[in-house]
Specification:
Layout: E1 5-7, H1 15-26, E2 31-33, E3 40-44, H2 48-58, E4 67-69, H3 86-95, E5 100-105, E6 120-124, H4 129-138, E7 142-143, H5 158-165, E8 171-174, E9 185-190, E10 193-198, H6 204-208, E11 213-215, E12 240-243, E13 257-261, E14 273-277, H7 284-300, E15 305-309, H8 317-327, E16 332-333
Parallel strand pairs: 1-8, 2-8, 4-6, 5-9, 10-11, 12-15, 12-16, 13-14, 13-15
Antiparallel strand pairs: 2-3, 3-7, 4-7, 5-6, 9-10
Helix pairs in contact: 1-4
């Protein structure tokens, strides 16, 4: 039976919907919750059975950790063991509530499954009014990965959740499209150094304005403390290839191919190929907002192949390019010979 889909306006969350979602969560159920990044599949983070149900519903491997969501810094001691290190406190003060996940020592009350057995746990405080209200009403931290089947395109609308998980969860709260459109930036700490494990809605350059920071190879063993580290992730069902920025497909073989590129930069295409713009490379925030919508629409069109061009840009372009590269199984074509 499909999960009920309950409207809950972002600017004025419905108290009845909030309490119903909170009640389901307290009882160990699964609720799709809107956040500013993507829709999350929420469960009581301190209930091992509820946490296990997330992995079952998504078909998610136990090696992929979850992020725990809190309503305010005051809830952090239920999730984090000990005090925040200085750079973590600086970043929390700067970006919470917001799309930043901090990887910190896991409190003993948090089931080991949440962090795939690691002693560290990712925690963030979302800024979305509906998410804030539901967590506060539930009164407990909420574990919430993206509300889609594992490895698939992340959901930025309630309709995406319904299509992916509607018959596997208890409730979907619909607050319209997400504002950021890509997941949170995930940061761990090495002494006074912040280490970006996953590029996301807050660019590395913004973090560097507050603390010393470096980026980690997201395919390295150290990156396993972050979700979304698999080589193939955020992927359409149609076979997808990622290509370098400025790729020239003119002399590729003809076929039923969707080429995803950038407004004002449409390349010469072979017969049968069609061009779909992500948006203008001059507005990367808008591209990030619409990224998963564009991928989903291309997937639904059912071509034989999708080819997605990287932005090649810094800032939030790193997050966009990370998602696109993983959609193409982390292999990036440099030339037609690589297709």
């Amino acid at each position: 039976m499909p999960a009920p889909l309950l409207p809950c306006p972002t600017d004025n969350p419905d108290p009845a919907v909030i309490e119903r979602a909170a009640s389901v969560l307290r009882a160990g159920g699964l609720v799709a919750i809107p956040t500013e990044t993507v829709y999350g599949l929420g469960a009581h983070a301190l209930d091992a059975t509820a946490v296990a149900s997330i992995f079952t519903a998504k078909g998610r491997p136990s090696t992929d950790p979850l992020i725990v969501h809190i309503d305010a810094l005051a809830m952090a001691p239920q999730v984090v063991d000990g005090d925040f290190p200085t750079p973590a406190r600086i970043l929390a003060d700067a970006y919470w509530p917001g799309p930043l996940t901090l990887v910190l020592p896991r409190h003993p009350s948090v089931p080991a499954a949440v962090s795939s057995g690691l002693p560290l746990v990712g925690v963030r405080c979302p800024s979305h009014p509906t998410a804030q209200a539901i967590i506060s009403a539930a009164g407990v931290p909420i574990a919430a990965p993206s509300a889609n089947r594992f490895g698939r395109i992340s959901p930025t609308r309630a309709s995406h959740v319904a299509a992916e998980l509607g018959d596997r969860i208890d409730l979907i709260v619909d607050s319209g499209p997400c504002s950021a459109g890509v997941e949170s930036t995930v940061v761990s700490f090495d002494g006074d150094m912040a280490v970006v494990l996953r590029h996301g809605a807050i660019p590395l350059e913004s973090i560097a304005a507050h603390v010393a920071v470096r980026s980690i190879d997201t395919t390295s063993d150290a990156a396993i403390a972050s979700p979304g580290h698999d080589e193939r992730h955020y992927s359409p069902g149609i076979p997808t290839t990622t290509v370098i920025a400025g790729f020239d497909p003119a002399h590729a073989p003809p076929g039923n191919v969707r080429y995803l590129g950038y407004e004002g930069e449409e390349p010469e295409l072979p017969a049968g190929w069609s061009f779909v713009p992500f948006g203008s490379r001059r507005d990367l925030d808008a591209i990030a907002h619409d990224l998963y919508d564009v991928l989903r629409h291309a997937d639904v069109a059912a071509p034989t192949r999708i080819i997605a061009e990287l932005t090649g840009e810094a800032g939030i372009g790193r997050a966009i390019d990370d998602r696109l590269s993983r959609a193409g199984s982390s292999r990036i074509a440099q030339s037609i010979a690589d297709l």
